[in-house]
Amino acid sequence: MRNYEMVFILSPELDEEKLGATVEKVTNLINNNGGEVVKQDNWGKKHLAYEIKDRHEGYYYLVEFKGTPATAKELDRVLKITEEVLRFLIVRKED
Length: 95
Fold this sequence. Notes:
single chain, alpha+beta, 49% strand
């Protein structure tokens, strides 16, 4: 399995319950597709450098995980169609 790192930004309008549910959805997606979450970090609500989807703020999250290329591909596919996610970036970490 390869090491990956992902940062994603969630909409600032979400309440605590919806934030938790969305983060859980992401971690479950990794685990259900042959991956393993190594580290999860909530960076909190931050001001965006530029406007994204008419939003000026967002909740930042960092997730480090192990998985196959198929895991990362499925995660990319699902996050693209998830409305709560403003932006995300998945990168493969060097071993």
